[in-house]
Design brief:
The chain has a single domain (2-213), classed as SGNH hydrolase (Rossmann fold), CATH 3.40.50.1110. The chain has helices at residues 10-13, 29-39, 72-79, 102-117, 152-155, 159-169, 193-208, and strands spanning 2-8, 44-50, 84-88, 129-134, 173-176. It is 33% helix and 14% strand. A five-stranded parallel sheet has the order 2-1-3-4-5, with helices on both faces. 45% of the residues are buried. The chain has 214 residues and is of the alpha/beta class. It comes from Neptunomonas phycophila.
Amino acid sequence: MNQILIYSDSLTWGIIPDTRERLAFNKRWPGVFENALNSSGKNVRVIENCLNGRRTTWEDPFKEGRDGSQGVAQVIEMHSPLSLVIIMLGTNDFQVTHNNTAWLSAQGTGKIIQIIRQAPVEPGMPLPEIMVVAPPPITKPTGAIADKFDGAEKRGAGLAMELENIAKVHDTYFFNAGSVTQASVKDGIHLDEDQHQVLGKAIAQAVAERIDLW
């Protein structure tokens, strides 16, 4: 069995746009992803580690523990052996509390990749392959989170391109979620239920093409 860790934020946690509610596992994209791969005979187990508000390397001044680079090595150690880690982060790097660019955010993902590759796994256990997933571009933030993400669509412009560059530099897989889905019109940030279905199936197809190589 291949264990796959998904390290992400509220887009993957499955928050229902403009609410504080959560989609069920089989309706958010990690569950769709797992079911699609298992249905194709690939025999995988998905482990979710998704925290609302998680950044790549920055803290939230109002909530503890949102720096995604802190503790990730122990997460890898905890769940090893892992075949693959999927990183989908960056959206929260563009909250109004940060004046980041897409380039800076992508460097944060690069730092997480390096930490994963140095994780203190048990002797003889392999380090996992890594896939970087660029989140769909932020559109005009609306609803309850509008103030929190005011102007984020401008600060985050070009993130997919910068993450693809980081994936090349660090020799990881890359998938652009924006190539198959888009942010919800309800808040401009998160994914609607039907978009979770689309994304989960698309990433499953991308992983299925590579899983037999591990």
